[in-house]
């Protein structure tokens, strides 16, 4: 995958050497882990996350069982794979469902992270499994955000609830809930405003939307390309909003995507979806095991 190309080729190099060895000494493992550590740091994985990760792998890899196995190099690689899967959440984390419809999904994130696009993609995914989503145009500040959501809605034939840009997003959310109930929509996806940086007024507004709609999911949309900043953003949002999950976008981009590996560890919230392109169908449920295998190449 583009976002992990650099990391993948470096790890393949390290593991190629390990796999080739008949016997693996403690020194070999230490040397390999030193290289893995550097590769992860260079890919922009959070420093503390890397430290814990390497410690865990070493703890499992340096032991009699592994050293005595017939293929110790492969066993070590397998341990790295399993720990990386754990790092990204272990098992797939599905969307929550309200006991009584509609299930409400609130999207949050910085401007440009991909909230509006992802809202449309998520509606598309739900529609494909025979659900009836309602999209809500709650980003009234970014010029063109409403129109953008309406165009997406038209493209996939999903209704978009909008009251223009003169009504407050809290009121829009309140009326959208009403409309969803009247029209029998079983999912409500609320696109919200983002700023370039986190600010108090924005957080206050998001909290009020939360209060009014009582969302089953609060998904933070994170641009996987924003490096270490993505982790700080996730942490700040989580402190204020009680996130339930994360959507990683732009994994098709060609810069370092290592911050993606840190988000779960830092917020404790699972990555639920991954976006890999601008097209409406470019959103997939996130599978930590598959992602680990893709990263390891
Ligand atoms: P918002 O401000 O958070 O609502 O962000 P938008 O949804 O408007 O997205 C910002 C830009 O990122 C747009 O040009 C999108 O087409 C683009 N974008 C969103 N998701 C992806 C993705 O997964 N891959 C790529 N390459 N571009 C994306």
UniProtKB/TrEMBL annotation:
Domain Signal recognition particle SRP54 helical bundle per the UniProt entry, residue ranges: 3-88
Subcellular location(s) of the protein: Cytoplasm
Gene Ontology molecular function terms on file: 7S RNA binding; GTP binding; GTPase activity
Keywords in alphabetical order: Cytoplasm, GTP-binding, Hydrolase, Nucleotide-binding, Ribonucleoprotein, RNA-binding, Signal recognition particle
Domain of life: Bacteria
Catalytic activity, EC: 3.6.5.4
Reactions mediated catalytically: GTP + H2O = GDP + phosphate + H(+)
GO term, biological process aspect, one: SRP-dependent cotranslational protein targeting to membrane
GO cellular component, one term: signal recognition particle
Binding residue positions for GTP: 109-116, 191-195, 249-252
All copies of domain AAA+ ATPase, residue ranges: 101-297
Residue ranges annotated for the SRP54-type proteins GTP-binding domain, each copy included: 102-297
Keyword Hydrolase: yes
Family: Belongs to the GTP-binding SRP family. SRP54 subfamily.
Known function: Involved in targeting and insertion of nascent membrane proteins into the cytoplasmic membrane. Binds to the hydrophobic signal sequence of the ribosome-nascent chain (RNC) as it emerges from the ribosomes. The SRP-RNC complex is then targeted to the cytoplasmic membrane where it interacts with the SRP receptor FtsY.
Description of its domains: Composed of three domains: the N-terminal N domain, which is responsible for interactions with the ribosome, the central G domain, which binds GTP, and the C-terminal M domain, which binds the RNA and the signal sequence of the RNC.
Subunit structure, as described in the record: Part of the signal recognition particle protein translocation system, which is composed of SRP and FtsY.
UniProt protein name: Signal recognition particle protein
Classification lineage: Bacteria, Bacillati, Bacillota, Bacilli, Bacillales
